Amino acid sequence: MKAQIAFLPGDGVGPEVLAEARRVLETIGRRFNHTFEIVEGDIGGIAIDKYDSPLPAPTIELCRKADAVLLGAVGNKKYDSLPAAKKPERGLLELRTLLGNFANLRPVFVFDPLADSSTVRPEVVRGVDIMFVRELLGGIYFGTPRFREGNRAVDTEVYTVEEVQRVSRVAFELARTRRKHVTSVDKANVLESSILWRQTVIEVAKEFPDVQLDHLYVDNCAMQLILRPKQFDVIVTNNLFGDILSDEGGVLAGSLGMLPSGSIGGRAGFYEPVHGSAPDIAGTGKANPIGAIISVGMMLEYSFKLPELAARVQRAVAHVIDKGYRTADIVSPGKTLMTTSQMGEIICEAIAADDANEAKYAT
Fold first, then answer.
1. Which of 8, 33, 85, 350 has most Cβ atoms within 10 angstroms of its Cβ?
2. Which residues, 6+ apart, have CB-to-CB distance to 155 below 8 Å?
3. What is the pLDDT of residues 120-176, one digit of tens each?
4. Nearest 5°: phi and psi at 103?
5. What is the Cα–Cα distance from 172 to 213, expressed in whole angstroms?
């Protein structure tokens, strides 16, 4: 297979974690005769400095030609004074619109040896495996009118039936491959947009009689994620609620640095770790590359239809964690502290060794 990947390191720790994701891609390519043509572009703060735009024309052209997009992170406090349309994060919103990816997949899973890394009790988080499906192109982040006028600011939540239908179908299809349970999260006791959301999801559920559907208000869901997270299989929700709830899921995993994401439904999949740019630790070797590396696994599965290689990446990460290797965000007494690059290197070694040790690495 041959594929072109738009490679967007971005800001802060983005270049560091993406360097390890690239190393994983190159390891996979060499071992299994796949050609990944990696072409770099600028996004976020670095693009503002170079082009006065968080998503400049050369990056737009690169992403239009790519078979998939891999991002590190964007953002820096030095851009806080810029208007919203010029901030680094705006580049992400524009890129999602450009690619047309309407469904953001954010898996939250807990590796058994990390069950004690969470601030939540180990018996609560052990065995958690949730897939968040976040609607990505609608809602309050894109609705109009949107403005600030004196001491008044306005953001607008807008959804159409069609937008809710398409993201709901993604959630139900995924649930069919998992434990056949979808939880739809809304605020239908208050918001008109949530009333439409709930009614539409109920109609879509009729196409999937083999999948159980239930509903939660977003405030209750936020509480249940901490109290009883193992009750959830697939959670589908709107743009704003999905952003918040999936980040809350990082508490269950022990660190946001562990979590990947993939945005699908458009012409090219877009993959990134969930964590931010963390400029305070940039250049220190403390960043956790696992979220970026598992994002590569998601790219292999959803964009390139190579689920066996995605599973190999997951097994390699599980093996390294099982052996006690840790980055600074998940280190604990008696474990081996690794830098960003050391963690990437040892995961690549585990990927390469998987043929001989597959049973041992299986989770």
1. 8
2. 140, 143, 146
3. 999 999 999 999 999 999 999 999 999 999 999 999 999 999 999 999 999 999 999
4. -125, 120
5. 9
Domain of 226, in residue numbers: 118-253
Measured distance CA(359)–CA(324) in Å, rounded: 19
Cβ 72 vs Cβ 8: under 8 Å: yes
How many CB atoms sit inside 10 A of residue 283's CB? 12
Catalytic residues: 141, 187, 219, 243, 247
Spatial distance between the Cα atoms of 77 and 160, rounded to a whole number of angstroms: 35
Burial of 151 per CB tally in 10 Å (0-12, 13-18, 19+): exposed
Which two structure tokens, joined as six digits, stand for 30? 């060499």
- Of 186, 181, 182, the residue nearest 220 (C-alpha): 186
Residue 28 neighbours by CB under 8 Å, 6+ apart: 34, 36, 296, 300, 309, 312, 313, 351
- Are 248 and 260 in a shared domain? no
Asked if residue 309 and residue 262 are part of one domain, the reply reads yes
Q: Is the domain of 209 the same as that of 168?
A: yes
- Provide the residue type at 255 as one letter: S
According to DSSP, residue 66 is labeled: -
Q: Which two tokens stand for residue 89?
A: 């994060």
- Compute the distance between CA of residue 243 and CA of residue 253 in angstroms, rounded to an integer: 16
Rounded to two decimals, what is the model's pTM? Answer: 0.93
pLDDT tens column, 49-80: 999 999 999 999 999 999 999 999 999 999 99
For residue 223, the Cα-to-chain-centroid distance in whole angstroms is: 21
Cα–Cα dist 16/27, whole Å? 17
CA-angle at 85, arms to 83 and 270, nearest 5°: 140
CA distance 62 to 39: 8
